[in-house]
Amino acid sequence: MTGGIRLSQYRLDDGTRDVLGKEISARVAATELDSDADEAILATIGAHALGNLLPGQVLHELEIFSVAGAHALLLGNLPRQDFPPTPVHGYGDETALAATNALHFGLLQLLGRTPFAVSYENDGRLVRNVVPNPAASGITSSWGADSEFFWHSDQPHLPFGEPGTDPRLYVPHYLSFYAVRNAERVPTELTSVDGIADALDESTLRLLERPEYAVGVPASNDADAPVRQLENARLLETGPDGRRRARYDQGTTRGLTEDAAAALASYGDFLAEVPTADLMLTPGDFMIFDNCRVLHRRRAFTPRPDAEARWLRRVYAS
Known about the structure:
This protein has 318 residues and is an alpha+beta fold. The chain has helices at 14-28, 39-53, 56-68, 98-110, 193-199, 202-208, 258-272, and strands spanning 7-11, 72-76, 115-116, 127-130, 149-152, 174-181, 188-192, 213-216, 229-233, 236-238, 244-246, 253-255, 277-279, 286-290, 294-298, 311-317. It contains 7 helices and 16 strands. The strands form 4 sheets. Strands 1, 2, 3, 4, 6, 14 and 16 form a 7-stranded mixed beta sheet that branches. It is globular, with a radius of gyration of 19 Å.
């Protein structure tokens, strides 16, 4: 796989998709379920239906994903409900999307992951609608479109957490997405930290491993975010599990020494040419990737009219 990405990829057959959709829709129809207030209920509904109806091989891959070494997982042809127009201004009626949220949260439960939100980003909501928001014009943000969102990891200004800690204080370990619309055919591009480290020249690699960088808060965070900058950070390092991990955002990262600044400039040039895995999410696709072991980017694009514009639904998980 290009970009050094180890990808677990599966696609449901139409029959399984349809039965799964009917099962979940029937179970969420009786009450109004909100993505934030009722996440646990939605996850239970989704996980029950998925556990009964997904093929055994897919269930096995979900169970072992976080320990098997894959960087990303893509599950295609999931049920698709009747969707409202794309909420280009950021938010919509979450109770109308209960079936989709049950799928998303149910898959995270089967993956053994905990969804979470932070108070200072996305209005404190679990689900972020990744849409071309006019208010983000010219900004490198998941709500942008006209500016390239260069290689980055999400919330790189936070420290890495370890199992058993409150995930809201740390870099989100996983990013998960459900694709509603992508008629513009904009890929989500991934490249692995392992591939980056193996391809970098030895001198630059060693400099990036030194604690000589400051990483600032990304544009998606509110002005009152409690952490504004991580000082004396390493951009590449080896975690307690023996796997390489990275933090990076071109617009908010700077070197604190002359050598670090030079290495950072070389790193940016290297990333501009790095091999990529281009994942073209289509309606009904679910994707999750390791935010510590993968950098991702999105090219600039011209959105469709507002009601039909690209729409992914992102949830942080750890």
